[in-house]
Amino acid sequence: MDGRELRRDAAAPVDADNAPLMQLRGISKHFGGVTALDRIELKLFPSEIVAIVGDNGAGKSTLIKAISGNQPPDSGTFLFNGKLVEIRTPQDASRVGIETVYQDLALCDNLDTVQNLFLGNEKITSLRSGRRLNHALMESTAREALRDIGVATIRSLRSPVGRLSGGQRQGIAICRCILRDPRVVLLDEPTAALGVEQRQGVVRLIKRLKSESRSVIVISHDLHDVVLEVADRIVVLRLGRKVAEFQRTGINASDLVAAITGVQHFARGDVRSDTSANRMARE
Amino acid sequence: MSAEQVSGLSPSGRAPLVSRAAALLAGDWRYVPIATAIVLIWAFFALQNPAYLTPRNLSNLCLQSVVTGLLALGLVPVLLVGQIDMSVAAMSAVAATITGQLLLVERVSVWLAIAAGVLFGGCVGFLQARWITWTGTPAFLVTFGVSLALAALQLHLLPVTGQINLYGTDIVVLAGAYLPAGLSWALVIFAVLAFAAFRLSAFVESRDAGLEASVRSVVLPTFLVMVGLAVVVGALNMHNGVPIALLLFVVPIIVLVYIGSHTKFGLYLYATGGNPSAVARAGIDVDRIRIAAFVICGMFAAFGGIVGASRLLGVSAQSSGMGTLLLEAITAAVVGGTSLFGGRGSPWSALFGALAITSISNGIDLLGLGTEVKLATQGLVLVLATSVDSVANKFANDAR
Amino acid sequence: MTRLTKALAAAFTASCMAAAPALATDSDPSLTGTVYFMLPNFTTVRFVQKDGPDFVAAMKKYAPNVKVELVNGESNPGEQQAQAEAAITGGAKAIVLTAADPSLASSILFAADKAKVPLIAYEHEASGGPLTYYTGFGALKAGQAQGKNAVAALSDGNATPVARLYGNTGDFWQRATKQGQDEMLDPLIKAGKIKIVCEDYVPNWNPSEAQRIIEQCLTKTNGAISAIVASNDGTAEGALAALVSQGLAGKVKILGGCDANVTTLQNILLGLQNGTVLKDYSTLADDAARLVVAALQNKKPEDGVVNGEFDNGFAKVPASFADVTMIDKSNVGDVVKAGVWSWKDICAGPAAKTPECAAHASD
């Protein structure tokens, strides 16, 4: 079965520039008495990179888990291409064209690169050849895909990924997601465990996703190297609420830190922040 | 931070020697240590007593390793998914009892009796796995509890005489018959041709996909398989011939090896042992994979027990259930290179492992060294094998 | 049946005096309370399936108002000790103990002694502590019977190659049977009539271990052995399995044996094994019940029940040794007469076609 074809059909019409590709309406999530997400509104436009920032416990991961289908929200709706969609499992998300690169990368260390790239999405030989795993086709496709995104440096595609470097593993996780040809890529802390040089590699990959006209939602703590470097728009979460939203142009790291921690009033004109956020910031 | 980490997405530097050796041992060379060990064991005992390396003893070795081997083979998928089944020995005893009773008391045909025993093993495997996946109880505890229940069930199923005598029944063919020489050679030719055809198709697929592929990858392994099979079959034909029991062991290994490396299910077995949550997020039903592994295990345990009963010409409470069989089966799988930590191993490990530990007990019995030596060696081998496994696992995790 | 073997035993052991007429301990309804029979494990089937029920029946006969509790130590000496403590706490009037591990039973013996609960060791030696009585089959006699059986088959040989299978290293029954066998076989070995080419202990008396030991013996001798002397039936059956897979069944004699397993009796009828030593369990259970009753009545057991002394390393204990009978093709019927198995049990499978079975087809 090749899920890629199906997904291409689903996502075929190219949207007008001003119509959002994906829209979240009133997404809420509670854990017991704790409100993890409070009526989150979020739009994502085609070929747009949105960064979600916030302190620990702000609800970033919960939001990603809600969109990726790993932890469905209690209330709220998803619109994709203007149509209402149901996302209750990662497979639902996959079907509408959302793929996630998890913080832990979700790689099987004991499997090789090719096996990891196609896990759950394997290519099978024809009925006449016994419907075996098509190792040759998968390997050549993998080779091509890795070269496309500039991760052609893995010495052997047939050795376990547990032996590869952190950057290579990140590359594989992103490549796996691209192989499914998604419209939206969710990246959860893609640079958390990486060195400086490897971070730059990941940043290049994120930009590349945009250039392939995919939309990206990235969660990161890394304001300098990731958020301010690649994001078109930055959404700030605090205690489960969206407290601010910035266009990247004309904003600096200290503005962001202020919004994240809520200790300083916003001064700049291009800031679109809701009243509750301002109220919270004042308190 | 290792040198690799700062090199970003650029080519990683030369890995340390130990790590490279570990990589080789985890890859193409993974059978080198166990094969070396077997050769050393053989050399040691052959020096002590030349009778050790005779066709007659090779035949003994094959027959003696089959029961342990079949149980170990069943354990491989379960170990691959990172679980364990402590009920295999008890299962083998109950299945043998069921088959024996059906054969002698109900007088059903031998194939039906065997099928019923194997089916029972599969069902118990299914039930205990369903319980494990549903409740999240560690498999170690559930299967151990089940093994006690199975031991009780066997006592219940045995006739009042406490024994089932299978002498003179059709079932003794399983472990007591040999292939005629002609047929065995025909099978060798068939096996070599099938192997060559398979390698050839893999070669053609690689070439068509634009990958590096050389004809050597077809010719060399085929040649080695041919020589290996010819030596083994030739030696066995110098005694009684190729034991049917050996076929009943090796053919399932080949089937499982195929499943392991050429089907989605096989791949998922390995993946589940590596990172179950990643497998679940890839849209695969992890519980189903685990349950299937236990079902396979139960069926092989049952079949192993039936072959064991055929070999011993009977079933009794003493002959199979408790004792060292469980430990031997686990040791065999681990000695052969299947990890207790999940995700690493191969059905071949059942063959190599069972052969290795049987080679030792066979030699000790040949020299008449006594129970103390036997127990001490068994214990040492278990400790050694699991330690090697743990160290290998540590390397696999520390490599990056 | 019981009487017959009992009488035989008395004649054999005590003296050649006219065997006492079958003594029946009178039923004593005045005795009450609970007696515990502590079985060693589930794996030796006879304890659960024969000794336990036989003892319950015997107690019903001699002391109808005494309750018998059967507990099983599951091969675990620790478990068994806990069970014994529970029994003593629960007010046991007497304990019949088959030790899960004979050498680890002394704490049970001392605990019972301290609580003044009479303790009768049953079949397994219980060493290193005070005992009221011991009752068991004479393992030495079993070994001698096995030895005699082997001597009869091998005495006119000349350097006949023989393999010997002993029991589990170090256990009481193994030591005593080997000693009994040695007494008979040593003269033949010295005279050069037989030559022991392989000998080994069989861990836990496990038949598959015995099978492998014989397979390896055949390897070592290149198939040249004429007889195997086995110390019990399970190991003899394992030896036979080795012979069958090498096409040597019936060509190599299997001598010795012990327990009168049904499989072995069938093999004897089929000419695959020479004989076996019969231990009539109900005799033993009967003896144990009589000893228990005597202890509860605080009287000496009636004459003939105690017929020897058993030294368990702590003290010399009055003992009741039950006798053993050598069974071969000619007297398989004795097993039936002793009530151990029925002809129907024995005449199953290929054995059903033997003349002995044909003669008892209607039984």
Automatic annotation (TrEMBL), chain A:
Pfam families: ABC_tran. PROSITE patterns: ABC_TRANSPORTER_2. InterPro entries: AAA+_ATPase, ABC_carbohydrate_import_ATPase, ABC_transporter-like_ATP-bd, P-loop_NTPase. Residues 22-264 form the ABC transporter domain. Keywords: ATP-binding, Nucleotide-binding. The keyword Metal-binding does not apply. GO terms for molecular function: ATP binding; ATP hydrolysis activity. This is Monosaccharide ABC transporter ATP-binding protein (CUT2 family). It comes from Roseiarcus fermentans.
From TrEMBL, chain B:
Pfam families: BPD_transp_2. It comes from the Bacteria. It is found in: Cell membrane. GO terms for cellular component: plasma membrane. Coiled coil: none annotated. One of its GO terms (molecular function) is transmembrane transporter activity. The chain crosses the membrane at residues 29-47, 59-80, 86-104, 111-133, 139-159, 171-198, 218-237, 244-271, 291-313, 325-342, 348-369. It is a multi-pass membrane protein. Keywords: Cell inner membrane, Cell membrane, Membrane, Sugar transport, Transmembrane, Transmembrane helix, Transport. Part of the binding-protein-dependent transport system for D-xylose. Probably responsible for the translocation of the substrate across the membrane. This is Xylose transport system permease protein XylH.
From TrEMBL, chain C:
GO terms for molecular function: carbohydrate binding. Residues 1-24 form the signal peptide. InterPro entries: Bact_Solute-Bind_Prot2, Peripla_BP_I, SBP_2_dom. Keywords: Signal. Residues 36-300 form the Periplasmic binding protein domain. One of its GO terms (cellular component) is outer membrane-bounded periplasmic space. It is found in: Periplasm. PANTHER family: D-XYLOSE-BINDING PERIPLASMIC PROTEIN (PTHR30036). Belongs to the bacterial solute-binding protein 2 family. This is D-xylose transport system substrate-binding protein. It comes from Roseiarcus fermentans.
